[in-house]
Design goal:
Length: 126
């Protein structure tokens, strides 16, 4: 499971939505933002990448099903969270077509979109 310390806080959402880069696939979208170095001569604070999974009511009207997809996505992210570069905020939006995928297919899609966003440390698909 993805620890709460590795999740994006809601207060950061407006900045990420406004300034983040976007990648799309048929089943999900990824918005990524890295905060700029603030101040003159100050070192950039280093933090582990933070993630958030958003499942809208368009995916399912039932909260039980939306939470199921969130749990599955967080479990997949937690498998390779340590292979992700530091200093990134990532918002993963699931689309309604997600309901047709198996766990393995969902895992492959998430890994592929992270790879396309150049988030892996060595950027190798393994």
């Amino acid at each position: 499971m993805l620890p709460r310390a590795r999740r994006v806080v809601k207060a950061a959402f407006p900045v990420i939505l406004k300034q983040g880069a976007v990648w799309h696939s048929p089943v999900l979208s990824l918005r990524v933002w890295s905060p700029p170095n603030i101040g003159i001569g100050k070192q950039k604070t280093i933090f582990q990448a933070k993630f958030s999974v958003i499942v809208s009511g368009k995916v399912s009207t039932k909260a039980v099903e939306r939470n199921l997809w969130k749990r599955r996505s967080r479990a997949i992210i937690s498998k390779f969270k340590d292979k992700i570069k530091n200093n990134y905020y990532c918002l993963l939006y699931l689309k309604p077509t997600i309901k047709t995928l198996s766990f393995k297919q969902l895992s492959d899609n998430i890994k592929d979109i992270f790879y396309r966003a150049n988030l892996f440390i060595n950027n190798l698909q393994s």
